[in-house]
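Troubleshooting: if your tokenizer reports a length mismatch, compare your output against this known-good record of 165 residues.
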Amino acid sequence: MFHFAKITGDKKAMYEQLLEQTEHLLAGESDWLANLSNAAALLWMQLPDINWAGFYLWREQQLILGPFQGKPACIRIPLGKGVCGSAARDRQTYLVPNVHEFPGHIACDAASCSEIVVPIMDGERLIGVLDIDSPTMGRFDEIDRDYLEAFIEVLHKHIDWSKMA
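Known-good structure output:
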């Protein structure tokens, strides 16, 4: 069993350790539900200054709440609505320093002030999005974007998306 100590250091060093921990945590398992559940828990445990971390999955032509850590959340998000729906529609990462200024923002937790959403693609197929919220304005930057996109690549190595119901 890998020891998951709280990681420290500058942001890049922290993310490097997070990616290493993710590799160890998911090694030998390919089930999407188990791996997304552990991935959400790891993000929640290791990322400083966040109040929600989890996944929305593309089903029934909308995003539906998946594994997460944090307060209860919105269950269904239409494509193109809010930050998650916009990132899914555009298939690109959205880094929002102030969610209160984002047109159509869906406020599941009034304490959230900034957000980053990374789409999860399997080739051309939309799987869903990784969504992370913070109670701090401007919490996320390009370093977060780069490393959370790399985090999604680690998930791809360990999840058999074809078995996702």
